[in-house]
Amino acid sequence: MIIDSHQHFVRLAKHPEVEGFRKAQLEGKNPDSLPNISDGDVKKSLEQVVNLMETRGIDVAFASPRAKAMATHEGTVEQNAVWADLNNGLIARACKLPPGRFAPVGMLGQHPSCPSAQVANQIERWTNEGFVAFNFDPDGTGGRWQNQPFTGKHNYPVFEAAQALDVPLVLHGSESINKNFPHTAVQYLIADITGFVQLMMAKELFRDFPRLRFLIPHGGGALPCQIGRWRAIAKHSNWASPDEILGNGNVFVDTCVYNDLNMQMLFDAVPLDNILFGSECDGAFPGVINDESKDHYDNTRRYVDDSTLASPEKDRIYAANAQRVYPRASRWIKA
Ligand SMILES: [Zn+2]
Fold first, then answer.
1. What pTM was estimated for this model as a whole?
2. What are the C-alpha distances in Å from 57 to residues 1, 61, 94, 227, 299?
3. Among 47, 54, 124, 280, which one carries the catalytic annotation?
4. Catalytic site residue 17?
5. How far apart are the C-alpha atoms of 109 and 21, rounded to whole Å?
6. How far is the CA of 187 from the centre of ligand 1 (A)?
7. Are 214 and 242 in contact (CB under 8 A)?
8. Can you tell me the distance from the alpha carbon of 291 to that of 299, in angstroms, rounded to the nearest whole number?
9. How far is Cα 152 from Cα 137, in angstroms, rounded to an integer?
10. Each residue's pLDDT tens digit, 211-262
């Protein structure tokens, strides 16, 4: 079995009525009713991604709302809670339409002034609806990075909920208002690196929450290239080392890197039990061709297949690790 642990239903998020709802919110109109999206429209938005999954031999994907659309720096506390619930409701419906192909990962109504207890309540509510994990924006200020490190006690209610409910948090960046940091090219990768380093710096976090799990997407950002630097600074500054937080089973990465060289570096730098297959299938740069492989850049299965790993090692990355790290996904996966 092959599980893509990192997918977004971007086409669904781009439905004109969904985008129109958020636009109206941000204009202060606060529509009374949620957009009425038909099952036909939901199904249509999945066609391309299901076709690509079949072409690439991907059996199941963990699907979340569009990351850019989280835009946790915009709106108000109340608006963002409604916005996250709207997106999660659509994801829940989409995941049920083709049975056995998807498991839902949620959006959270984060906002710089939102009490984290409210976000924790949202985690509980949507976990009870069958959600298997949640995207959590470690910045939350649209690329300004003005908040305290996300690992602080102000977020403990979120961590308590995630640990108690056994759902991993995916540290995923969102929209950037900073033109120097385009979201898919820079802000997401900064969020990955920053999230990982903040976890190294947070000495008490995994003592307080020994079973808390984080997934750092996009191959852990700079992890494949810079793990030596982080090993050095961990010794220099008396932080937890990258090997410690990976080895303790608290931090995982996915395979969303787009070439053979960096995929191999990822396998060399990170223990294989900490790597989950992910491809952002039809997400970040749909249809863009890699001249080396003559295939889509985001067909990351090709780079894993072409690597020197043995078949049982590939199996761990393709499915076993995802099933272990996302235990609630089992109910969505056909036996
Ligand atoms: Zn993503």
1. 0.96
2. 9, 11, 20, 31, 11
3. 280
4. no
5. 15
6. 11
7. no
8. 13
9. 14
10. 999 999 999 999 989 999 999 999 999 999 999 999 999 999 999 999 999 9
